[in-house]
Amino acid sequence: MLRSRWIAGPAAERPGPLVAALTDFRTDRMLDLPGIARRGLSLSRLWPSLPGAVGMWLWADIPGRRVGSLSVWRSESDLREFVRLRAHVEIMREYRHRGVLRSRTWQVGAVDRAVLWHALTASSG
Question: In the beta sheet, which residues pair with residue 24?
Fold first, then answer.
């Protein structure tokens, strides 16, 4: 599994409790994977300016035709604001019918990257 560098957001120093969010999109066709990854990378450029964003990774499992993100937010309302962001909505409209999206959120006390990465790798499959 590949992952991006950890991208800190404007709320990077925020103490807990925080909200972690894992997205896992499995595309039906390998041909769609480059476009999805490219759009995700483009969206990640907004990360340093997103209100409530603590930090995130983008990740990819190429053989499994899966891509996603693991992000940490100051609150669920900050996460919901991101989900409603125009750029995010456009990506979802373009690709949602081309695969299966799984997501989950949970509360964390602090940013522990080793624990977060374990949550991602433990959920893959």
Answer: 68, 102
